[in-house]
Amino acid sequence: MEISKDIKKIARTQGYTKADLQAGLAFAKRKNRDSNPPGDFDSAGRFYAHERTRAVESVRSPSRAFPYSQMTAARTVRHCAEVFGAEELHVKRIAKAIETCSEAPATAKEAAEQLAAIRKTLKTVKLEIAEAA
Question: With contact defined as beta carbons under 8 Å apart, do 7 and 122 qualify?
Answer without folding.
Answer: yes
